[in-house]
Amino acid sequence: MTGGRPFRVRWLGRVRYRDALALQQGIFAEGTDDHLLLLEHHPVYTLGVRATTEHLLAPPGEVGADLERADRGGDITFHGPGQLVGYPLLHLAGKRGGGMADTVDYVRSVEALVIDVCRDLGLTDVGRLDPYPGVWVRPDGPDPRKVAAIGVRLSRGRTMHGFALNVDPDLSFFDRMVPCGIAEFGVTSLAAEGVGVSMREVVDRVAERATERWAKGPVDRADVAWRHRSIDLAAFTRGEGPGEPPPVGRKPEWMKVKLDTGPEYRRLKGLMRGKSLVTVCEEAGCPNIFECWNDGTATFMINGERCTRACGFCLVDTRRPEATDPGEPVRVAEAVAELGLAHAVVTAVARDDLPDGGAAEFAATIRAIRAVNPGTAVEVLIPDCKGDPDSLGVVFDARPDVLNHNLETVARLQRTVRPSASYARSLSVLARAGAAGLTTKSSLIVGLGETDAEVDGALADLAAIGCDIVTIGQYLRPTTNHLPVERWVEPATFDRWREVGERLGIPHVESGPLVRSSYHARQAAEAATGVAVVLSGSA
After folding, report:
1. Domain containing 88: what range?
2. Is residue 537 part of a domain?
3. pLDDT confidence tier of residue 287, bands split at 50, 70 and 90
């Protein structure tokens, strides 16, 4: 099908419930396409809108599980490894031509989907057990047992939440609760019923059946990597190279940068050294350093020079980090004043060693810049803070003018390129920032082995959660210990991605071979928001 609303299927791997919920909420609020998110959760008990804790029989923490409240129907349920969770986010037509969708009919549709999948996989005696929602094994027999739970939300013709199919989870987790508030019947799984299938087989079958049932237009599927070994998690982390680079040829002319250490470059470098400040321009080997520094623009890097993560594309030092510097925010603010910046960009290494991931330092730097430079717009490029809502909230509450968090690459390559990050979590951070009313931004680097279509899909995912600004640039291998360049992307392809992103509804896409996350940051923010920033002292 080609004429209707796109149907985007995403296998996201193992995702914390809070991250998946934020991602769902972002797509629900901003997305215009239909989606099916497929994933596993880390162990978690969730409570529906009418549920109470009386059906929770023991503290979740005793078995390493979380407890979360969900805005879905139903009582208490469990999600964990070995269970396939599906979240359809669909646009439903109203019943009898009206504006309100039929909730009962939709729940039946989800149940029918799971029933079909179970039968496809060899579990034939499955069906409904009225009045209980879900999918049941031997529903007409003396001992029915639930193999899949259903819990949905419908609002304004849109759906959230969905189903949880037990493939091969640890069923003992269900002994610590009254599943869905139903005490008289038990819980089972495909494996417990003698159906030995892999999660991948189940995902593939669900995707096929869901496409048949719900797709109204072109289908776009993307999967995070299904398997990854230690060698896949980038040999650079062990001081080893990943092998010889592929034969992509010499660097093309459009990737060559003219060295220009003009007076403004030298002045800014002296200023940074004098204030003991670090710039990502230098630490990450940015090819635009001469252009930006000669233009009086720099991206400050706070929280030290050493990162707790090792990404396959990044030159930043990965040795043990040192203590943060409490005087750094003020020095950054003073440098912004001396440079007369209208738009200041602040980033940081990942600091997983800090309880809040470095969020407090970001907030302090934003406040310091605002105190010294009230007219300066502040953009921050933040790590994911492990998805912790409280830590992210510290940054959000400081109200940066632009909140940037980089997706970096397509779903399939996330585990190789960013072994300590998560595709779903990065999208959830941006979704949370957008829900907080912030202008959001993200970046993709290309030339790492992705296809053009995969980049299109990543742009669609960023558009679905309402990302305001996206930058796309060519990957440059910093050392032989880093991931190789798989291809040199032609300038015309970057032009096409800009058009694709804007067609998807992203307000501003900065796309070109030498583009980096903070390249033309002020101009991008102005284009996306429609608000111009005037340099200090200008008329």
Report:
1. 7-223
2. no
3. low
